[in-house]
Structure formats: structure tokens, C-alpha cells
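Example record used in the benchmark description.
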Amino acid sequence: MKPSPTVLRALVAVSVSVTAGWAAPAAAVAVAAPEPVPVPVPVPVMIVLDASGSMRAEAGGRSKMAAAKDAVDALVSRAPEGARLGLTVYGTGTGSAPAEKARGCEDVRVVRPVGTDPRAIGRAVRDIRPSGYTPIGQALRVAAAALPAEGPRSIVLVSDGEDTCAPPEPCEVAEELAGQGVDLRVHTVGFDVDAATRRQLTCVARATGGTYTDAPDAADLSAALGQAGARALRDYDPAGTPVEGGADPATATPLRPGAHLDRLGPGQAKYYSVEVPAGYTAYATASLILPLRRSELLRITRYAAEGTECVWSQEVKHAAGFVGSAVMSWPVRRDPAGAPVCERPGRQVLRVERLGTTAVEEGPLELLFGLEPPLLDRPSPAPPAPSTPPVTFTEPAGQPRRVLGGGSFGAAATLDGSGVYTDTVQYGEIVFYRVWVGWGQGLAYRVRFPDSPGRAATIVRATTYNPLRDELRWDHEVYGESPVKLPRGSDAIITYPVHYDNRRSFVRDPYRLPGWYYIAVGNGQERDREDAGSAEMRLEVSVAGDPEPGPRYAAVPADILGSAPASPPASPGASPPASPGASAPPSGREPASGGPASREPAPPPPPADAAAGPLSLVSGAGPAVWAGVPTALAVAVLLTVLLVRRRRR
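Model output (C-alpha cells):
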């Protein structure tokens, strides 16, 4: 295990009691656990396999079709319990002669309906013989019609070439399905494809919110299809308000507090703007989750309103890992007069970019933006002594419960606090879970993998992230036939209890905020054997420590990072702001100096489609609203006194 080298500057939003639409910031109550949530089930998936004539060509000393059959067989044999799979093929009923085109472009058939025993799909794929055309657009329509009519559903499409039958154009069909409001994702895999085919398959995936994965040769196909299948079965798609970043600072897309979702291609940069009121502290995170064999450098750069570059933060996603999160925070002065340009309130611009990559696919980009109000006063409990140890793991009681982890932070499966949970992690997957940790509490957990005779070895990894998705602690081990426990040399992977004054300690700073803490479990690294298969996993979770009151704020920090549970626990808020003179993140540079002292423009109105809420109203308001808060509180107190007197009569 190791602590993160990045000092956390984060904020987790939790709800407070509200009277007549206004919050009472002085109320400080203990955080309660969120309500239990239903256990999700695998998303129904239709596999669409290219069996056109081009699949007879050789790749790596064997036919493409043989490699594709092995990849599909591996996918269905590793499918998790309860998986609902089907198989559709095209190109098997005709030849590829011009006279056969009309019939060949209708040659799409559902070989096995969704819900078929995965073993039957494995047997059926062995009998496929490639011969004909490539009607991708028509295949998408047939596959979509064969899926359930309601609920999330997915298509996994494998092709080695472009559609040879358009119309209908595959991308137009994908847009058509998306335009119907169908909750359908199409994940595409390009097998030894050229640039034109890659563009077409990427377009299909993007139109439906799916992902494209490149398989340059037969050796990569099994892993690529397995990753696409895992995304599809787990509803792998990240969550957040969809946004499209601007191409330059002038067209930067406004972000409101909460979670957002965009896509970012190799070498691409996008721009977003945020509004930070006087006295607030802002927090921003960009997270990129891509398959194995991809090394990425993800960077956020912040600019002041007049264009001064203020600070940057970056994170490397190694080929052996799965996740890269670049995190930054910055304070804004209460009195902007004479303040450095990078610490003045108003509009700021964020540039998010992928650097130094050879990857070909566009990836989902999860964004968080948060605003921390000024502090009213500190919490009453004394700060923990520097020597106070982390929390202690307590053996959870009860029977193991089956869960289905998500494929990203935004899709993480919610765990009901302390308990034992089980899941299956496929090769090349990273699976996310989230646990609510309140003030005074900490997280302790361990991961077990059972004995598995004959299993080829892979690297298994467990990682803890805080509410701003910054890496806290991790451990890994080689897992083959013998049982494995993570962590290796201690009882559990643990955190410190969450306290406001943890921010005074470099080591404890990442544990200063309550909210959703994430556990990510991964199976496989670049050098592992792709035939290692799945890993049965047992997750033992202990939420330890006594809940306690938190700090009090001058405003309501309601769900500012999109992280409050569905049934929000009562809490006074989250962490207080850093001081106006707080330094820049260690991973970035100090704010630029010497620029002209220009007056900040007035904040623009919030986007018309932004969700309203207490913080949304307050954070975008002017002095009149802030001045009205004490008045509203006084009125609330007076009404309460009158009501009590009336009841006593």
C-alpha cells in the first residue's frame, strides 16, 4: 500500500436541513448511511459478428474468422452469472459476387436470441462460415429489434471492414436509434481495420454513447472483445451530464457544480468555463478510463478570465493500470481588490488534454466541478492527534451478497456499508464500487481471490479513491492457482477517519472530507496472458468509526460534486475552504504573476438547462441574495418560536 503523492484538495457535497427553502448553516448533525439500493443485473447484450468474405483472410498465421470464433467463445465462457447474451451474424448466406449483392445486403440473421445459454452461443459460433457482404447498418437494426424493448441494453459489434451495402449508413442507423430515445449502447471492435473503417465504427459507437476498441491483430482480438463485452454487460458507460467541450477559450463550455461526461480523443484538448464566487474554493477533476496497453498523460490547465495561465495538474495512466485522474483546487479571495489575477472571483477557463499517447480510440472523459462555500466556523470536536492511527478493520457479519460492479466512477455499484460482497472480474477489467463514509468514519477493506486450479497468472489490484477520485492507497499481487488476499502484508487496506482538521497534515489531508469513497478492483496487466480468464472476487468491507458533526458553512453546499447518495444523509456540509493564500497543487506550477490587474467581468447567467438546487441558486447569486440569508434565518427562527408558543397554549 502507499499514500497518494498528490495532496487532496477535494470537496464532497452532503445535504443539510432546510427551512422554507433556505438552509440553516449552523445545524451540525451526524452523517447517516444511505438507503440500501437494489442489486443490478447484467445488461442484455447482442453480439454482432462479421462473417463477410474478408474474414477468410489470414491474420497472424490463421484466418480472421478462426480468431473471431475463439474470441467470442472466450467472451461467452467468461460471462458473469445471470448474463443475457445473444448472437447475430451477417455475411453467411451468400457469396460476394455483384449478382448476389441485393440478397447479400439483407443477409442478417439472429443465430441465438438474447437469454440463450452462453455455452450454446459458443457451440453455434463454431459452425459459422464467412462468405458474403458487410451490411453493418442493417445488422444494427436487426440486432436492436431483437433486444428487449425497455431498459438498458447493448450491442457488441465486431467487424474487419466498412459497410459494403449502404444505404443505410451505419452511423445514420446509430443516430436513428439514439434519436428514438432507446437506452441502447453500441460498443464496436475494429479487427485489423483501415482508417476509413475505424472512423465508421467510431462514429457508430459515439452516436449511441458506446466505445470503440481497436484490435490490430488476432492476438489482440480476444482482449478487445472481452473488454467491449465487459463494458456492455456492466452498463460500463460513465455517468454525468453530457457536455461537449469547446475548441478554444472563447467557446469554452460552461460547467455547473456536479458530474459531467464528455469524450476525448488522442492528442485532443477541450475547454470548459466555470464561475467561482468571492470567498469560495473551487475543485475540478478529469478522469480517463481506458483499456490495457494504453499509456496516457491527462492534464488540466486553469486560466484566469483575461487569459493568464494559472496552474496545471496532470496524471499518468500507465499501461499496467486503468485510471488517470488529474485533480486541482484553487481558492478565490473574498476581497478581489489587489488580489493576484488567478485568485479573483468570476469566470475561469479549464483546458483538459490528452498528451503523449499512441492510442487510437476516443475515450470517455468524466469531469467533476465543485464549489466550497466560505466557512462559518470549525467543528467542535478536537482535531486528531498526529499519532492517531487509521481505522481498524472489523470482520463484517452476514452472508455474502452478489453485486455487479460498474465500469467507471460514475457507474460504480453502491455498497450498503459494512458487509461481504462477491463479483466476477474479467481479464482486462477494472470494476468500481462506492461506499459512503461520513465525518468521523473511515474505510477498511480486503479483497480475496479463491484457489483456482489450472488458472494462468494475472496481476490483480485493489485501489482506494477519495470523493474527488484521487488515488489514496493500492496493493497488487500475482494471482494464479493459489488463493490471494489484498493487501498482502497487513490485515486490510485502510484509511484515516474523516476529520475537518486532517487538512493540517500532509499525510491525512486526503481524508478530510466525507462522501463516496471508491474501491476499484482490476484483473490483468499488459504482460499477462490473455487466456487467464475471469477472477472470482470476495470484497470484505468495514466502515469504522463513530459519526460526528462536521463544519458549518455560510451557505448550503448541496450535492456540489454530484456525489450525495440517492437518499441523502443529514449533514452540515463538507470541507471548509482553503485560506485565500493557499498554494497551488504540488503537481502543478505556482500562479503566474506580473500580469495586468484587470477588473473581472460579471458572471454570466447559468445555463438554461442546468438543474436547479439550493447551491445552484446561491452560488450564482449576487450580494442581495447573500445579504438575505441572515434575514431568512431570522424569519425562520421567529416562526419557530411563535409555533412553539402556540403549541404550548
